[in-house]
Every structure is written in C-alpha cells, then in structure tokens.
Amino acid sequence: MTHHSDLLVLGTGNAGMAAAGVAHNNGKSVTLVESRDVGGTCAIRGCVPKKVLVAAAASLDVIARAGEHAISTGEVQLDWPALIRRERTFVDGVPDMFKASILNRGMTLVTGKAVFIGPNAVEVEGETYTADKIVIATGSKPATLPIKGWVHTVTSDDLLTLEALPDEVVFIGGGVIALEFAHVLIRAGARVTILEAAPRVLPRLDPDMVDTLVDYTRSLGVTIHTGVTVQSIDRDDDAFVVETVIGDETVSLNADLVVNGAGRRPAVEALDLEAGDIKADRGRIEVDAHLRSVSNECVYVAGDALATSPQLSPVASYEGRLAGENAILGADAKPDYSTIPSAVYTVPAIASVGLDEVAARAAGYDPVIKVNDLREWRSAKTYAEAVAFAKVLIDPKTGLILGAHLAGHGAEEVIHLFTLAMKTGLTATDLATMTYAYPTFSSDLKFLV
C-alpha cells in the first residue's frame, strides 16, 4: 500500500520537528518516520541528560572552592547511581510526549527504518510512503576508527545509563564528548585519560582558549595525550588494555571502560541514497546553498545528517525550519552560520562565536585581537575562579566584533552578548559604552573590547 503526503520527514529530532512544523502550520499533510526513539538525540541521548551530569559536576566544583570563601566542608561524595537515576527522569516519558505532540497536530508518525526506493519514495516495514518533498533529518551516529578491538568501546549513550562508576576510563579521541564527560567523571572519583591523534584536543576551536581549558583539566587530574596512535584494545577479564604509541614509546593503559570519543558522522548510509537519486560521497550528502540535494530537487537535508554544518541542536532546529520553508513555501533561504554561538560544557565551560584568528585573516581582515586573563580581575577573584579567559577579535575599520572566545567567567552565558552584538551590528564602542548591572561577569565585557 502507498501512503502520500505533502512532506515526508525522516527523523523526529530538532531538525525533523522544525521542518514538520513549518509544513503543518501551512496546512500541509506531514508524515514523520522514526527508526529509534521519537524526539531525537538532544532530548534523549544528548544535550538534556548530559547537562544533568554537568550540573552535578558544577556543584562539586563549587564545593571544592568553598574554602576560598571561608567555608569549611567535610568529605563530599557523589552517589553515582542516584545521579544516573535523577538524569533518567529527564528522559523518561519524553518519547511519548513527542509522539503525542505529533499525533495531536494531525501529523502521521511511522516507526521503522526508511529506505529509499525512488526519488520521492521510501519503504518502511513493507509499506511505501511518497511525498512531494522529503526532508532527511536522520541525525548522526558515533564515528568508528580502524583500530583492532574497537568493538570494545562504548559511546556517550552508554555513559548516560552507566549504573556503576568505573575506576579507570580511557577516551579515544579528544573532542567535545571526551572533554565534557572527563570533567564529570574526574570529579565523581574516576581516573580519566584522553588519547588524541591530532596535535591538539578540540582542534577546531581557538587554540589559546583550548590551552587554557587543557591546563585546568590537567590540574584536575585528567591525563591528556596528543599526537598518539592507538594500536589496539584488548579485553583482560572484566577490564581492557589499550595499546598506544605516545611519542616514541609504546604504552599499555589499563581501563575499566574505553569510550569512543572520535566524534559523530551523519546517519544516512542505511537509507540507500543511490536509490533515491541522492548524490553523496562517503555518507556526506551533497546539497546546494538552500539545503537541497544537488541531484534530487525533491529532497532537503538538515541537522546532523548534514555533514557540512556544526552539529548543534539549535543549528538543527534552524536548518530544519529553513529546509521546511524552502521545500513547502518555495523560499530560497540560505543558512547563515556566522553568528551561531557554541559551547563546550566542561566545568567551567568554554564558548565561541564568529571567527578565530586564522579564519579572520583568511577572510581578509587584519583584526585587533584583545586577550585577557581575567583570573586576577575582581569579579573572578570574588568567586575564586580558576579559569577566566577572553579573546575578542575586532575589525579596526568598522569596529565590528569578528569573533569572541571565552573560557570560564560565565562563558556559556556571556557569549550571547557578543552574539547579539554581531547579529545586530553593534560595535566594540557600543559595547564599551553600555551601562551594565554591576558587579557581574557581563559588566566586564566593556573592558574586553
């Protein structure tokens, strides 16, 4: 049997729901297909549950610095199983909530794996679904590495349901997942090692900002090795041995848990893109500036299924909305990523928006670069901050903010002031002459520009 809709959406995460919402609000029929939990990664296996663990780590961090405020504390321990139970309360029932939202708005929800059988048709569980337009919003999945014994690694999904805290954890890969969970696990009482093949962890972020974070992360007891080659992962009874080359030395590391920190890639390979006349290169769907497949004008791609944009849930919602508008309304919107902020939720966090030094010079700017170590500033000392760093890039010709890179000092919140300035065209002078509530971290912004 064939079922037809105006819009067919593959995936019910942020991108898929945003695209479906556009179509529904414009009176179009919508069918969504989900192969896993309704609601997607962010709400169920990503941002939301992870932040519960980060919040616990932040509380432990505050307690650790209590002595600086003349507060005496006794022995403090984290009840890991209880924390995981609390974190799961943020997830339990969420798929049903998303499902109810879809059905209550009169949209159709299909569960199962979609496979293209034509340019505008997919098959799910033996049924055929066609549509005038299709949005691929299937999200991402953990990347894999060609390392012997890789099957022994676990993912961030597994960490979010980990009932017992391991003694020794090794992350292979030094990306966002590794750094964020390292800050949680080390404070919970585990020993943590990060192995990164590249010369730096978080290689896509401003190096000075990252160096500030790395120095502090090491001070917590996390071991970070870069430029390493992991050769194998072998099981040893209930534990594992990670064979790696660090410098010129082969080192064996023991671990109770080996975590895949190699990042994520688009989850599109199982769709049979070729059958849908969707051009792709090694799982990277090729799209034009309007998020439309270069080979199939019926198909749009949004969210983590799109390999060329930041893997952030707000970006997924943004792209999903644009894809929906372009597909349903015939709009010709192009995504603009220039003022989208991002944060890495270590404790404390780091955050960025706009260009770094290399990108700014490549774009033809000769930026004014203002770097500040804020740890001796009154605001930072008041809260005994161990990390407080800011780097701001300014165009000397226009005074416009080109980029901002912050560590600690409320970075994940203050970054939005820089984002707002960039989005609305406020200059460094505008920011410096504003009146702020004082004393606040935000009030320091006038001295950062």
Total discrete domains: 3
* The CATH homologous superfamily of the largest domain: FAD/NAD(P)-binding domain
Number of DSSP helical runs: 14
Helix/sheet category: alpha/beta
The overall average pLDDT, rounded, is 96
CATH topology of the largest domain: FAD/NAD(P)-binding domain
- Largest sheet features: 7 strands, mixed
| Number of beta-strand segments | 23
Shape designation: globular
Specify the helix fraction band. 25-40%
Radius of gyration equals: 23 Å
* Beginning-to-end CA distance, first to last residue: 63 Å
CATH class of the largest domain reads Alpha Beta
Low-confidence stretches: none
- CATH architecture level-2 label of the largest domain: 3-Layer(bba) Sandwich
- Estimate the strand proportion: 25-35%
Note down, in words, how this protein is organized.
With 449 residues, the chain is α/β, with parallel strands linked by helices. It is built from 14 helices and 23 strands. The strands form six sheets. Strands 1, 2, 3, 4, 5, 6 and 18 form a seven-stranded mixed beta sheet that branches. A five-stranded antiparallel beta sheet has the order 19-20-23-22-21, sandwiched between helices. The mean pLDDT is 96.
Provide a concise account of the structure shown.
By secondary structure, this protein is of the alpha/beta class. The protein has 14 helices and 23 strands.
Give keywords.
Enolase-like, domain 1; 23 strands; FAD/NAD(P)-binding domain; alpha/beta; single chain; 449 residues; globular; five-stranded antiparallel β-sheet; seven-stranded mixed β-sheet
